Amino acid sequence: xxxxxxxxxxxxxxxxxxxxxxxxxxxxxxxxxxxxxxxxxxxxxxxxxxxxxxxxxxxxxxxxxxxxxxxxxxxxxxxxxxxxxxxxxxxxxxxxxxxxxxxxxxxxxxxxxxxxxxxxxxxxxxxxxxxxxxxxxxxxxxxxxxxxx
Amino acid sequence: xxxxxxxxxxxxxxxxxxxxxxxxxxxxxxxxxxxxxxxxxxxxxxxxxxxxxxxxxxxxxxxxxxxxxxxxxxxxxxxxxxxxxxxxxxxxxxxxxxxxxxxxxxxxxxxxxxxxxxxxxxxxxxxxxxxxxxxxxxxxxxxxxxxxxxxxxxxxxxxxxxxxxxxxxxxxxxxxxxxxxxxxxxxxxxxxxxxxxxxxxxxxxxxxxxxxxxxxxxxxxxxxxxxxxxxxxxxxxxxxxxxxxxxxxxxxxxxxxxxxxxxxxxxxxxxxxxxxxxxxxxxxxxxxxxxxxxxxxxxxxxxxxxxxxxxxxxxxxxxxxxxxxxxxxxxxxxxxxxxxxxxxxxxxxxxxxxxxxxxxxxxxxxxxxxxxxxxxxxxxxxxxxxxxxxxxxxxxxxxxxxxxxxxxxxxxxxxxxxxxxxxxxxxxxxxxxxxxxxxxxxxxxxxxxxxxxxxxxxxxxxxxxxxxxxxxxxxxxxxxxxxxxxxxxxxxxxxxxxxxxxxxxxxxxxxxxxxxxxxxxxxxxxxxxxxxxxxxxxxxxxxxxxxxxxxxxxxxxxxxxxxxxxxxxxxxxxxxxxxxxxxxxxxxxxxxxxxxxxxxxxxxxxxxxxxxxxxxxxxxxxxxxxxxxxxxxxxxxxxxxxxxxxxxxxxx
Lengths: 149, 652
Description:
Number of strands of chain A: 11
Strand content of chain A: 35-45%
Oligomer: heterodimer
Helix content of chain A: under 10%
CATH architecture of chain A: Sandwich
Strand content of chain B: 5-15%
Order of helices and strands of chain A: EHEEEEEEEEEE
CATH topology of chain A: Immunoglobulin-like
Shape of chain A: globular
């Protein structure tokens, strides 16, 4: 039988929603780590995508927050604090602070809000990250698209 | 709605228009010399009908897939009764797809042992639906072939085994040893969506490349337009014995499908030699067919009791579609029009909006030594220049130049540039990237720690027992040929009874379906994809292979399309600092090696910025393993069409 020596230990959950999708630390105990955590995959309605990700920060004191996207076509983008997606060089020093809100030991990353992704290829690789005084912690997940009429 | 990815595309498009208007480089040879061919829906139906007719004449069922050259699956048809009802464990493995009962096939490294070989491990004894295997075989036939060479899955079988030729004792392994684990469903380069709405390629293959005979390319007017893949015997295997000529049902049925779309005789594998050995195209010719193609029942008149079109996950939606013309934007491959590679007839990958996917850009490390976009551009141009000068090994007619894909990555594995010659086999797109990343990864001082973090520390321990306690953390420069030496089931390569390389399974467990580190890095991804295709899981494999630590710059590991273990890459240095990898794939492995080494060397001379090959004092060919010296690169003798230079790599 198939011998698997390196099964990804994270359990991946597929969340289906035609409105807003939230990947929440409350239900999944999501944390970001310096070597990159694998977050639950998500699926969105491509015509009207809304997605939030909430992660726990433990005792960390985040100074900046970041959101990036890698598309199948090879584009690298990052989200600004105003919600625009702009090209990113791929260099960490060029990351823009998204000023994602922190509350009760968690950060709420707003990835999409009513965005039209109907022309995009999937899966899109999303990274959320925060920077403390000493390190960058991040997590990634695949965003799949559900095309509706 | 405040932000759209589409806005970014539009702004990029405006930028490109501006750049084109101000460019001063003359644009030469950027149009295709040939008429670009493709398969129509009528032709796809004809291929299917002919194959079905042969299968019915022989009294068997078959799963049949047709692909275009970019990997778009144009049709999947499953005949009632095809393949197996029970898997290797005796469990019913049939599934209902599109209301068609679909049999399974079992992976076995010995076709005489239909339930697999005990103890082999890896993918051995795995079962998948027949159409899934047929897709892998069709993609293989399409991806390995070009207008200069027609290779089949039987050719693949010949060049991936532990000896070349198979069973030729003490001869080294096949030149494309390990290529079966490319085009993987988790690759971040290939396009996962496969539909009439998303035609750009290259596309992924559910099982990587196939070595099971029955995948044969399709041609129109001397151009490869796709391939047919057939599986009917319930076994996803290989041909371990090249000393005979089989009556392989899969191959015969596929061959019938190719009538009217035959590969030109002069470019078939059996007209092409490597190391003095001819490749095998098929074991039987058209005279061995039992049916007449002209008597095939037209596809549209086939009764439902024969079988039907079969939906398969992300690969085929159940409706036959036409193929794309390779080299047009719809295929995802087209001529470069920016002039950034000088007058070379370079081709690039484009997205669905006809915008370049991998234009040269800076490395992502943020360190002063990182690659710059101009350096990437110069490296690719110099590598392609060598390719256009190099005498092709695997193409006809004699005197043609090599056709390859060239990939450049930084140390994070980020793709910082990719371009190709017009007719390079498509498989080289993903493989050149695997090679570039593999060289950069194993040359990185973090390689050992990251493998340990990915629960693959056993391979690190094995490497250190052979190469010394600092292996994979001491900055030794590994070309893919070096890492390949360590990935063979015999080290020295081909020497029977020699111990395995530290990245390989011992020969008792080894097979092409259980190579060692190469498979173990991606096994979980393959399992996840299989479960997704079977409907056992709603979650497909992630885009980005392996469970190694992720890089924030890429959101993936450093090797997100897996590693490759046959030659054709070098790590890139700025003076003594590792800054990336250069991978080449598409021609003979010595040619690929040469294009890598000399392309980088010449770029370094042109740039004068410290860019170049690894200092000779840190190259892996200083290391000994099992009493044999590792190799770095191996270049062909007298390789050029325009020069009598005998040993161009000497001293580089």
